[in-house]
Amino acid sequence: FTANVSHELKTPLTSIMGYAEIIAGGIAKPEDVAPFAGKIRTEAQRLLALIEDIIHLSRLDEGGETVAFEPVELSALCDTVRDRLQSKAAGKGIALRIEGGPAAVSGQRRTLEQMIFNLTDNAINYNKPQGSVTLTTGTESGRPFVQVSDTGIGIAPEHQSRVFERFYRVDKSHSKASGGTGLGLSIVKHAVQYHHGDIRLTSKPGEGTVIRITFPAAAQ
Ligand code: ADP
């Protein structure tokens, strides 16, 4: 993991250094300065996203923060995530829908929101033009669940178990183009384990992906 992190951190930094040296050395053409500065900003954003994800993951690794579990309504978290991602989805021509009913769990609000956010963000990033993303909540045999489904590019069977590994990406350039860190689904997996839930992925290349997370029944 350390070797991977070092590599992932070094790549944007090398690029930042390169552009900064050209500008500082006075060898950039005047019309190139603004686009080079833009590239430095993009790479810096990538670094920030990566550092935030690494911090989330290490907190979960350490057994979570010392934040106590509290009653959390998953449908309310879906509303919050929709508000956060609505304009991104609209910008890509993707419809973001919410369905279903109440799903009350006991858990860490922030971690659960991050989990739904990461799944929804992926469902938008790996979608197709005019596609859709649906967030569904409810109960299944008394167990609360949240499900994120998309009409996107799908994940081939040989990649389906591996996408939860740290830094594993099916298509590195697609992930990078959408600002991905390669850590989103491993954060989701850890968050689910932390809440004693189950995660189920079903996907068909070219058709879309459904990820459903089911939590223990309230009485347990
Ligand atoms: P990333 O930051 O690259 O999105 P993730 O850990 O969130 O990292 O996901 C790992 C990989 O799984 C992605 O790079 C992508 O190839 C694949 N993936 C994740 N979600 C989806 C989805 N909804 N549809 C298709 N592919 C997906």
Your description of this structure?
The mean pLDDT is 94. The two termini are 35 Å apart. The chain contains 7 helices and 7 strands, in the order H-H-E-H-E-E-H-E-E-H-H-H-E-E. It is globular. The longest helix is centred in the first third of the chain and has 32 residues, at 30-61. The chain has a 5-stranded mixed β-sheet with strand order 2-4-5-7-6, with helices on one face. The protein has helices at 2-24, 30-61, 74-91, 109-125, 157-160, 172-177, 184-194; strands at residues 70-73, 95-100, 104-107, 132-140, 143-150, 198-204, 208-214. With 220 residues, the chain is of the alpha+beta class. It binds adenosine-5'-diphosphate (ADP).
How would you sum up this structure in a few lines?
The chain has 7 helices and 7 strands, in the order ααβαββαββαααββ. The chain is an alpha+beta fold and 220 residues long. β6 (198-204) and β7 (208-214) form a beta hairpin.
